[in-house]
Structure formats: structure tokens, C-alpha cells
Amino acid sequence: MEADAFVIDIPLRSGYEAAGHGLSRRRGVIVALSDAGLTGWGEFVELPGYSPETTETALASLAGSPVTHSNPMAVSARRTAELDLEAKTRGVSLAELLGASPGPVPAGAVVARFGDVAATLSEAAERVAEGYRKLKIKIGPGFDLEPLAELRNRYPDLALAADANGAYRPGEVPSGLDEVDLLYLEQPYRPETGWEAFARLRANLSTPICLDESITGLPTLRSAIAAAACDAVNVKPARLVGLRAAVEIHDLAVDAGLGLVVGGLLETGIGRAASAALARLPGFTFPADLSASGRYWDRDLTTPEWELVDGTLEVMDRPGIGVEVDADYLDEIAESRHSLPH
User: Dihedral of the CA atoms 105, 208, 50, 98 (nearest 10)?
Assistant: First the structure.
């Protein structure tokens, strides 16, 4: 087996501004595991402000033997490549390997123009025109009710969610959010905030509370359930140390009667393919935070590129992640290539 890591640094088509952080470019690592003429692919995404992991720490973690849980997103990249290779070796889709099946995934676009109402409304109009039926808006103190209320006024039938990325402190979330008819409010407080604060907010709002960064694995999900701290969970495989762990979160959440949504991390088509396969599991009742390739990239790393069709992304009935990696383009944009332990 050959194992390689490609460091990439690619520009976003448009800026990305959430509460506390913004991006115009996105660094990361593409992991390739090759054996018997087949290659499995995984992706690490560097997201300052969301995770302390960096491209450098990911490379160090991936080069170690064994890879540890100290860098969950790097571990996830390796494990995703392993699962992709396993699925291709078996001749089944990644979705089937996870216990799901290929097919359409209801898609959603994230609008991250924090602090700029006009830009938020303008981008939202673009996404609706492109065919997205769900939008998630990045909000925070001082930037919440105004853009959300205007969007609800303009698009009364739009599935609308809001994500604070932990920007509020207890007592700061405006009760007026209930008037906007949101699918859910995601991660209102920082993860270190006690479960009691989330539970109190949930009791005081009719808007469902969805947890993202607070849920790092089965123990934290069990604690959140015991505290009645949430109505739903945003599942990002990278944050949870891989797809298998994400399936375990899915199963526990379903048993507890919680809603589920698959989140995105500004992935290329490689990471998006893995998340879309996960989103085919039956418990993911909310449209995913997964967009077409053209949402973020002038050119994606996969062929075919991901396209929005009737508000959905199609998980292909093909072995593995279901899309091919454009190896020539990857070589073109890679800053460096590193051999990894098998």
C-alpha cells in the first residue's frame, strides 16, 4: 500500500464571515491510500476559529504511528480514505458500507456574511435563485433578528436555520427568534458552557436547539440527552473522528428522538462525497449543510463536480465515494506532497 498527503491552499469563490472568524482561502490536506490499483481518498480541512488543528499539526499527526485522537479531523481524513478504499475493494458505494444507500440528499447553503445585512440578503437571493430550499445564516450578538426577519419576510416558505458558532452568552439570545420560524438555532453558546444553560434556553424558546461543537462523541451526546440540552445534532464526521463514529452518533440520536443534520466544513468534492454518503442514513431528517461544487470553488477536485438538481445532491451508485479525483488538478494545486506510514 502507498499512503500520501497533499497539502492544498485554494481560494474561495467568495468570502466566508462567521461570528469570530472569516476566510478568503482554505488550506488543508488530501489523503490518498493506494492498493492493488485502487485509491481511497480523505480530506482534512483547516478552519481557524472552528478547530485548533492546522495543516501542520495534521501532517504531524498523519505521519505518526499510530495516529492518535489528539487531532480528530486529521484522524478522520485517514479513516475516510481507508473506508473509501475498503468500499472500492468490495465494489460497493460508501453509502452502502455505512448502512445506507445511494440517492438524493436534500441540500442547503450556508450564508456567512456576518455583520453585513445587505450582503447577507444579496447572497441569500443568489442561493435561492440557484435552487437551494434551505439556508443557514451565520448570526451572533447584534446580527440576528434583522437579517433573519427580513429573509423570512422575503421567503415565507424557505427552510431557514441560524448558526451562532457559540457567539452568545447565556441570556443574550433574543426571544424574538421564535417569530422567525427557524428550523433550528445551532450552537448558541460555546461548548464549555454548562448543559444547564442550554437546557434553560431550550425551555424558554420554541425554536429547536441544535448542537454542533458541543458534541464531540458519544459521551457528550449522552450528557446532552440526559440534561435535555438539545433537540437536534449537527454531525460533522471530521469533528467526530470519522464516519464510523458519526454513524454511532446518528444511531444514539435517533434512539433519543433527536433531529439530525449533516454539516459541512468547506470541503472540496472529496470531503463532500463522504458527508453526502453519511447523509443518506434515515435519521438525517433536516436538509444537509452541503452545497454544489460551484458554491465555493471555481474548479473542484472531483469529476463529475457536485451539482444541485431539484434542490438535492446525488450520491452516486458507484464504488467508494462515487466520484473520481482529478489527479492532474490535485498535482497542479498541491503545495507539497508527503509520504505517510502505511
Answer: -40
Whether residue 27 contacts residue 58, with contact meaning beta carbons closer than 8 Å, is answered with no
Catalytic, 134? Answer no
Q: Is the peptide bond before 11 cis (omega within 30 degrees of 0)?
A: no
Domain-wise residue ranges, the chain: 2-91+326-339, 97-315
User: Which SS3 state, helix, strand or coil, does residue 286 take?
Assistant: coil
Torsion of CA 220, 208, 166, 44, to 10 degrees: 60
Count CB atoms within 10 A of the CB of residue 26.
Answer: 21
**Can you give the pLDDT at residue 20?**
62
CB 46 within 8 A of CB 38: no
Cell of 186: 445551532
Contact 315, 276 (CB under 8 A): yes
Angstrom distance (rounded) from CA 229 to CA 17: 27
d(CA 14, CA 21): 15
- The second-level CATH assignment, the architecture, of 97-315 is Alpha-Beta Barrel (3.20)
What are 280's three cell numbers? 443518506
Give the Cα separation of 206 and 198 in Å (integer): 13
Mean pLDDT in consecutive groups of 10 residues from the start of the chain, 342 residues: 96 73 86 98 93 92 69 95 99 99 98 94 97 98 98 98 97 96 98 97 98 97 99 97 98 99 96 98 98 94 97 98 97 96 85
Distances 266 to 14, 80, 212 between C-alpha atoms, Å? 12, 16, 15
Place domain 2-91+326-339 in its CATH homologous superfamily. Enolase-like, N-terminal domain (3.30.390.10)
d(C-alpha 285, C-alpha 278), whole Å: 12
Count how many residues are written for the chain: 342
CA distance 51 to 222: 22
Angle subtended at Cα 282 by Cα 277 and Cα 288, rounded to the nearest 5 degrees: 55
* Cα Rg of the chain (Å, integer): 19
**Cα distance between residue 20 and residue 17, in whole Å:** 8
